[in-house]
Amino acid sequence: MPRAHVHSMAGLAETRRISWLDGVRGIAILAVILVHSSQEVRFLPPFLQKVCESGQYGVQLFFVLSAITISTTLRSHLGRGESIPSWWARRAFRIAPMYYLGIAAYCGLKIITTRLGMHESLGSTDPIAILTNLLFLNAWFARGNNNVVPGGWSIGVEMSFYLAAPWLYLATQKWRRGALFLVVSALALLFAAYLRYGNSVPNNSFAYYSPLTQFPVMLTGVAFFALTQEWLVASGLPPGRTTALSLAALALAGLIFGEWCGVWAEQSHLLAPSLFGFVSCVFVALASGPLLPLVTHPFLTRCGVLSYSMYIVHFGLLLPARWLGRSDSFGRILPPSLQLIVFFLLAVAASAILAGVLRDRVEKPGIEFGRRIAARINRYRWPVIGTASVTSAGR
Where exactly are the structural domains of the chain? Predict the structure, then answer.
């Protein structure tokens, strides 16, 4: 593949990211906010409760999208002859500033609410827990896993995966069976998780949040991109009704099996994330084709652009809903289903507004600073893996 084609594909990736990949992110963040909104409502109808609980698998959709982003940015980055350490710097400063703000905000919230005698709060003031989060090691230590920044376990998993991501990506580009290697690796990690935790992994437990349980989702995402990059990035799902219907049937089968393993029947919370990782890959394929009009809706794409900050802040913005939801008088005013709708809509609106400010004031400056750091790193004589390593893609 000529070098010019590598750059044109990278450019197309960035263009198409705006038009549809952010829309898929929008769906993922709305699903996550839905499940957390439902947790603040008592006495929801059982069926509706299960539907809302399924929103937790929006995190696995985020992981697959992150794997695609990792692959596209590495393709562009290495195609320009830049170094892997500079890519790490870019990704770290994309994530860290907003996350560190979240640590400070939730720690402050914990102090204030504790002094006010409000025990239904969020955050932690445990120094060791805070330190593991500052170092993004919280995915590996139960003490700080998910109790400093709510939902922070997923950020820890993603940051840990970044360390191995360049080598995994290059394996899929340089080796014809690289995607198969990733799938086998995912299965091996699941087997290791089974040996470590057994099949009886409680939902939303440290074992469930463990990288052993969650890394297979991201490995599947990188393998998916390796197999589909030529049409996924450049032109979308190959046309054909049969192809779309086959993928839809595959997604439905994976969804049913995943729900049976996960929140609906709770047969194996160990397997559920990987199954939803597979479903997410198929959904992304459909989103690039027949579902394109849906995922390019301006509301979804806007939510997708703001999804990281929305993820960090929406937990805190739902605290008033937690206090209201525990109130018997509020329950007499609004039935549970209407409470859910109100809490969800307000949480989406408030988190989107706040996230818009934070994206301009925190995320964008962090991204720009990461670019400057990456440029300085590239001045050193790092071993550079250039276009020769990425131009074999798709052979």
Answer: 3-390
